[in-house]
Amino acid sequence: MAISRKVKNALNGASWVRRMFEEGEELKRIYGEENVYDFSLGNPNLEPPSSLKKALKDLAEHPITGMHRYMPNNGYSETRKAIAEYLKEESGLPFNEKHVVMTVGAAGGLNVILKALLDEGDEVIVPYPYFMEFKSYIENFGGEIRLVETNHDFSLNLSEIEKAIQAKTKAILINSPNNPTGVVYDHACIEKLGDLLKKKSKELGKNLHLITDEAYRRIVFDQIHLPIVFRFYPHTIRVTSHSKDLSLPGERIGYVAVSPLCEDVDEMMAAIVFANRTLGFVNAPALMQRLVAPLQRNSVNVREYEEKRDLFYHALTSFGYEVVKPQGAFYLFPKAPIEDDVALVKELQSKRILTVPGRGFGKPGHFRIAYAVDKKVIEGSLPGFKEVAEKYRV
Amino acid sequence: MAISRKVKNALNGASWVRRMFEEGEELKRIYGEENVYDFSLGNPNLEPPSSLKKALKDLAEHPITGMHRYMPNNGYSETRKAIAEYLKEESGLPFNEKHVVMTVGAAGGLNVILKALLDEGDEVIVPYPYFMEFKSYIENFGGEIRLVETNHDFSLNLSEIEKAIQAKTKAILINSPNNPTGVVYDHACIEKLGDLLKKKSKELGKNLHLITDEAYRRIVFDQIHLPIVFRFYPHTIRVTSHSKDLSLPGERIGYVAVSPLCEDVDEMMAAIVFANRTLGFVNAPALMQRLVAPLQRNSVNVREYEEKRDLFYHALTSFGYEVVKPQGAFYLFPKAPIEDDVALVKELQSKRILTVPGRGFGKPGHFRIAYAVDKKVIEGSLPGFKEVAEKYRV
């Protein structure tokens, strides 16, 4: 056989998101793109803020000599300084540029962190439903994923997490605002998690790491504030990107920041930079590093996502769907009105509506709607959602 | 311990290139940047061609809606089509867009290929001296590097390669024009390699893969033509980037192309795309994919590198250094006039000249000069090189 056995096995269990995407392409060929309501992918429909567009235009008009060359593997000092300044203000902790590594998006950042941390057999705890790529990322480095249940409202179940922590546990990976549920973990929840990790670290005689994937960190609604995880636990590593806040997912620009309070923080940074280099990322794209530096406090108009959330959530609940109201990201994760989520997704497909079955996120019996689409796509889909709800008399 | 044991061990044996770079920074602090002759890093000093700058300016002025969004994991269809067209013309083989995957530079591409190919214990043959990152890339996926000697002129030693091939061999990885030697493998050499791999594949009852890293493919001198490896062996995978030909190393844009004649090419492409996604690259940077598409036949003014090669090569040989004359890339790899290459590099440092010892490329007794620098840096360094040569009476 030509390819790796491991990869061959993984290919056989192809991602649900991808499978739905492909079936959707087929539907679009048959019915025309405008007649298909595609909620399968989380691909932001908003354009980047005008400040970014302007910065790109200025730089293209007045290029700086050497602006496309290699820079240190952790990124431009200026960009890391700007981010550290922001982190310092946000957390009150003594961040400086050495605590920040620019990465090829959050996905690149997660791989880099996991390579830096994991040895064969180390476990990483992940609450589910979850973004299933996490499993691949952890297994890339010989780690094992340990899934733990969340509460009915998809908030963290601390006692499940406590039960899961044992000698092989290296880290816990949380994602808030969450993909696929849109749920945001509140201050009390993060505080309790921090306390639990402190307690368990003491018991185990080693420091557990808290990896917080905040790719959707600026997409929050109802005027809530995302808790600053750094404040609640010293061995915290944040990974995030500008894919959603600045609508740059195709450009692969993000960063990893390690708490200045983290054990052996210098060694950790060296390990992360080493992983960034040897996994072949080398450095985050140069041009984008320069553009995002001054935009750490900017974002797309989040109210647009909030309005879509409101529209969609109210419609679906009025049709009888059971939905945890999300406070962030651009996903809804309703309960399927029948047990079989794949059958439900197929039924929605018959109405030319594309969603992803919950089992694609480790949680059968639900389905994910990615609503970073034009409002008219949402509006066009509602009769179909209603018909399906009525068929199953939710 | 906080970080991975594997990574900790690797950190202890930090890269020579990096070590030299850091010592160089120290020298620059002491003597001023303009008084240090830095040949430690292969960071192209030429700016991208004006066609690229213009394309960037046009796109920034007239942005296309959605141009920063996610696209399929293998990249834009338009970009892959443009590259396939070029490959088809160059090789005479029936390439189409499905045989091309856009990657985060050649380093990203190599990691993606190796993940797609390797299982634990598989061997990859690499002729040395070699770019030492290859070892990390291979080991990232449980593979083992099998180094084979080259001839005195750094050309491939086919009988050494033949001896090294055995049941565990999965692939051979060649790099021409070569880093660190600048040597280009000629047609006869590639043809013989292709024949050898066909013979050994038959004997072993499995198809060996030929991975050809052509990051420097357009930086060739003396009007030579780089052999098109695809023509000589069906199971060939090319990885390259636009870091050197378009001077975009910081932007991380390259591609992997698999021969249409490769065994199970569809499965191979699926594996490569899967690896690109799950290693966290997701896709090559969107903006750069768009910019490089129409520039497949363009490059920086290679004559500038050739002139530097001539200047440097003639000066060093006139001082008595023994140097294989390179026909590509922007490196010279002279024999050290004393046995200890680290001592020689330190001696050069005393003249404020930064180079990298040959052991950083698996070949002690030599040293690498990266001359992608301004001409005046080369000129300024020559008296120092001369003094060192005289000291050791080469």
Q: Can you characterise this structure?
A:
The structure is a homodimer of 394-residue chains. Chain A is an alpha/beta fold and 394 residues long. Chain A contains 13 helices and twelve strands. The first copy, chain A, has helices spanning 5-12, 16-31, 50-61, 77-91, 105-117, 133-139, 158-164, 187-204, 265-278, 286-292, 302-319, 341-349, 375-391, and strands at 37-38, 100-103, 123-128, 144-149, 169-175, 209-213, 236-241, 254-258, 331-332, 353-354, 356-357, 367-370. In chain A, strands 2-8-7-6-5-3-4 form a seven-stranded mixed beta sheet, sandwiched between helices. In chain A, strand 5, helix 8 and strand 6 (209-213) form a beta-alpha-beta unit. In chain A, helix 5 (105-117) packs across helix 9 and helix 11 (302-319) packs parallel to helix 13. The radius of gyration of chain A is 21 Å and the shape is globular. The relative contact order of chain A is 0.17. Chains A and B meet through helix 1, helix 3, helix 5, helix 6 and helix 9 of A and helix 1, helix 3, helix 5, helix 6 and helix 9 of B.
